[in-house]
């Protein structure tokens, strides 16, 4: 995969005659940059790629006591076990739906909130609200879920009362499969929208103020300034985040879903991550969970390169 | 800076402002309410927590939850350790990330795409707990604080975002510095980094929070109890809500709700306090101002 | 922010020097006699004991070896265990919490000492079990890999609102039919006399898995469905394939459809189990006896004068098919001895001798109560704790008690109860235990570890646990329930049954 990428055309530059010559010339020309990159490269080699050599346990029946080399090779058995699971399609569908909620609803809301915050004139209010909305990020899912249980307690919870009047239902929303996704989305939005704005606010802080002043002189209204200056200036950030998000599409955040699932909503709640937890981690089956991790990585890579390619077609910066 | 904005505000614009203030105030309240409940609960008696469903002000205020956590030397030591590790770790991680992001932002650097592809690969695939543990062990980092900092030193996600910010800086600034005889390191230090304060502040926050909240690394890498960080001490209390039936069979009563709430407060407040310091840099990051200065 | 770069770098360098100070355990791996005993154990207390802990010193003296305990937060004990096994710095003794895949595979690959003969030899009198059945249950297919940590065999009980029973003139239940009638009365007959229809009978929380002490498991056992597995003429069969199990489910479904159970039974967080009982919403809890004590304590806070009117405790209920009690496994994990730390028979003997010493009455008092004359004193043969040293006492019971095995009997001082009511409640617990143990239905397959179950047991159990709740909720009917059992069979269940029966035949 990586070699295929490296073969993509590089920006044109003067080509010296032979390869060693070119290498030497580059090394001299870019010596400072290469030196700056060295610590990072070392980091990736040591802590990211060296352990990957251990990922061969995906093809073995790994028993910690025997060590990686002492464990027996089983080839693609673990991959097969995962892919041939009768529930595979259901798990895939559930996972993609949760990912879609996050990508198409939660993510845009983050941008909207950042833009609204940016339009706040009252500095003190702006700072206060910024600080407040990012607090929920620090509450663990355990706490968020228990607060949800409190708010949606059947018969007594304030939100349950409100919603049951609104929709004329007396169902236990925490157990009802139809309510599972709305609840998950609500929690997602509540917990991380504020936190997500931080990165956009940093991008917005970099916008050239003179552009606004010039636009005002040209008679541009509020909305026009947002559309023509603010949004284009954070577009690169949006695109990059979007690309990186798609790479995580099969990772749904295990803890939230695990804590929110129960016997009555499991048909819609089960995702890859919860399934692997039961099948793998809880049982100490590391080979199996590593195999699933590899599979998800493969899908993630394809998606990242795909969306990156798309972004470039639409003249966006992309990540490469 | 906003005088010109106000002068040219239309009536619709003013209506929007009012709505926006109302809406965001609401959003802010919505975000903080549950936390206030946690805060109130941390000062309430166990009986009140079990009998009142939701409250923002306890009828009877008690500090017993805090006393039982704070009374121990272990806690105070773990707290101090965590502050130091977070501070040092954030500097190390942010430094390494910025150093690597800068060369990668140069479109003409040979091999850049290969490196980026490898970085992206590590973002979607991590080798897992045991292989990483074995590497940390082989490097002799077990039971050192570096084990909490180095294995997660560069977050690929942060690296890519910072790289993209660097890419958006006007190239003329660097060119002029280079004409003045600056090398790349000097350009990075005197031109690029000062211009990137907002994004660096953002990722300083991300890294700091990452180290602050990390419990898996101390769990796996530190056997020596005296080196434990705050999360190792707190984890026990917060996670106990999901005790399985089998664990309950030990007849140890689960920790009181009040203590759980107090733990959440203690773990959250320091990071909240750090935010305004970083927020300051967000506003200061106006490009033109720095260029002119 | 990067202007003054030198300072943080210097700071980092200083920190590295100060912090990298090594902590390597004395290089083991030789066959030399052990000088210290490293034990890895979970803890429940707020903070773990320190190296200079007085209990550590006292126990080291008893054991004749310098004790060094690696405390691990209980919640993440499993992850830590697996990484420790992967490394080469393995403790001499490890608390193993359950027979999960990684433990069983490691043990079968020879990673732990097989203690079966050593423990049976009688060389270590304090490690000879007083309940052979429990020791076998803790084994892996008959091989004992650890010294089990004994727990009460009878814990299941029914806890009711005594004041509600009194208000309605009802007696405590003796049969499952009584329980259903009380649940109905608690729902429909206004047990709190406030004139409002705001109460229900049974309080059930959400529960994952099967055969792990849920209220549903208790009712099924009372109905005669057995305990996870049944021996049907020498053949093992899962409890949920029996008619009695189905009968019990119908009983549970009737309770739910009648509205006699809390409406959020499928989602209620078990951590909030006490709340409806305390707040007068629900009146019946089927759970461990110690919950009655917890509840009585909370009532005491709420109503210090007449707190003794609220809690009624009864044991097993007679079902329509006979009298059966649901026991626990009788143990909670075990202390296993890895071969990579303890390399030869001599060292093993040293470790077992130390463990033997750690199971004397003196050691039991240290582990369960603390230091006599410091945080507790003995009055009339009972331990009385010093309230001023509560934090220390909590640490002892939350950490050191985890090292206790007590398999040859628990001889530490009984704890003095605060009031007459507490005393009576405690006595009642003991009486109920003595009574119910005679009817205990043990899991005949407790010792058996089937390979298929170790890899996919959690998923298989979830199929049945979900189907059970869906059936009770009325989401699926009898056909749906049978379909779920079929799914269980085809997903590996049949294989589990086959493997279990092979192992069962080998063992007996």
TrEMBL record, chain A:
Q: What is its main location?
A: membrane
**GO cellular component labels:** plasma membrane
Q: Which residues form the ABC transmembrane type-1 domain?
A: 92-307
RNA-binding in keyword set: no
Phosphoprotein as a keyword of this entry, yes or no, is: no
Topology in the lipid bilayer is annotated as: Multi-pass membrane protein
Offer one Pfam family short name for this entry: BPD_transp_1
Intracellular or extracellular location(s): Cell membrane; Membrane
Q: Which UniProt keywords apply?
A: Membrane, Transmembrane, Transmembrane helix, Transport
Top-level taxon in the UniProt lineage: Bacteria
**Region span, Disordered:** 1-21
Q: What is this protein called?
A: Carbohydrate ABC transporter membrane protein 1, CUT1 family
Per the UniProt entry, what species is this protein from, by scientific name?
A: Glycomyces sambucus
TrEMBL record, chain B:
> Which top-rank group of organisms is this from?
Bacteria
Membrane-spanning residues: 21-44, 74-102, 114-133, 145-166, 187-212, 258-278
ABC transmembrane type-1 domain: which residues?
A: 79-278
Report the PROSITE patterns cross-referenced here: ABC_TM1
Cite a single GO BP annotation: transmembrane transport
Q: Which GO terms describe its cellular component?
A: plasma membrane
One Pfam family in the UniProt entry: BPD_transp_1
Membrane topology per record: Multi-pass membrane protein
Where found?
Cell membrane
Recite the UniProt keywords alphabetically: Cell membrane, Membrane, Transmembrane, Transmembrane helix, Transport
Q: Which InterPro entries match?
A: MetI-like, MetI-like_sf
- Family named by the database record: Belongs to the binding-protein-dependent transport system permease family.
| Name the record gives this protein | Carbohydrate ABC transporter membrane protein 2, CUT1 family
- Please give the organism: Glycomyces sambucus
UniProtKB/TrEMBL annotation, chain C:
**Stored SUPFAM superfamilies:** Periplasmic binding protein-like II (SSF53850)
Cleavable signal peptide:
1-21
Q: Name one Pfam family in it.
A: SBP_bac_8
InterPro entries given in the database record: Bact_solute-bd_prot1 (IPR050490), SBP (IPR006059)
Classify the source by domain of life: Bacteria
- Coiled-coil spans are none
Ordered alphabetically, the record's keywords are: Cell membrane, Lipoprotein, Membrane, Palmitate, Signal
What name has this protein been given in UniProt? Answer: Carbohydrate ABC transporter substrate-binding protein, CUT1 family
